[in-house]
Amino acid sequence: xxxxxRSGDPVRLSFLTALLADAGIDSLILDTHSSIMQGSLxxxxxxxxxxxDDFQRAQAVLAEAELLDPKP
Length: 72
Description:
- The protein is an alpha+beta fold and 72 residues long.
- It has 3 helices and 3 strands.
- It has one domain (2-64): UreE, C-terminal domain (Alpha-Beta Plaits, 2-Layer Sandwich).
- It has a 3-stranded antiparallel β-sheet.
């Protein structure tokens, strides 16, 4: 599994999960419980993971929708 994005916004994560599912890509959200426990401080964003084999295709789907996080 590889990390696709990090976000503290549950609505964004839900939307991205649906977008990837429409493209036939399974995703997994990690750190959900840790993020909830720390509240709205934004210290522990949730991580969206995809299978290694789907990583490049997932990046392409998000880039096409102009939703890929820019590189720092």
